[in-house]
Design brief:
about 40% helix, alpha+beta
Length: about 180
């Protein structure tokens, strides 16, 4: 019988990180139990977890650095302002360690758009200012530098990407029934 490989999963929720490594069936059971706990059942798993590592950490969204182009494709921002928030998020949480930064400037935004193969903004400085005006970024101490704030984080983490089931549009007004002529 052919042996299945070892699987490794890292789950980050808030400040806690859980790493699980082992056979596929064991890893699936542990991840399912964690999902149940996070959904609100709040019951502890009924099996023992042999040696998962739990450590508080700053909240990276992913354990493996993701290519900026793939991240832009995943989040698919519809405007340059949203794309500026995506770029700031990427450079703060997902970029390789040596490329991470707290704030972005017009040059970094320009490079992010180029690397993501997105059409370049006409004036990157104005795009960053518009993202600040939209509430996604805050001005940092340095002139022309902007950092992601909680609104921008929530936009990228929870709103962009995935299925867009909520559609914006006008609702039809219900018509009042006509009075019949007597």
């Amino acid at each position: 019988m052919k042996s299945k490989g070892t699987y490794k999963v890292k789950v980050t929720v808030g400040d806690a990180t859980v790493e699980v490594e082992g056979a596929e069936s064991g890893v699936v059971k542990i991840v399912d139990a964690l999902a149940d706990v996070l959904r609100g059942s709040r019951k502890s798993p009924s099996f023992s977890i042999p040696g998962p590592v739990v450590s508080p950490q700053s909240p990276p969204a992913r354990s493996v650095p993701l290519d900026i182009r793939a991240f832009f494709e995943e989040k698919s921002p519809s405007t340059d302002v949203e794309a500026a928030a995506v770029a700031a998020y990427y450079y703060k949480y997902l970029a390789p360690e040596d490329e991470r930064r707290e704030a972005i400037n017009p040059t970094i935004l320009h490079d992010a758009f180029r690397l993501a193969r997105r059409p370049l903004p006409k004036v990157a400085r104005f795009t960053l200012q518009n993202a600040r005006n939209a509430g996604y970024l805050d001005a940092s101490g340095e002139s022309g530098h902007f950092r992601l704030n909680a609104v921008g984080y929530n936009l990228v983490e929870h709103t962009l990407g995935g299925s867009k089931e909520v559609t914006k549009g006008k609702r039809k007004k219900k018509r009042k029934p006509r009075k019949q002529a007597s």
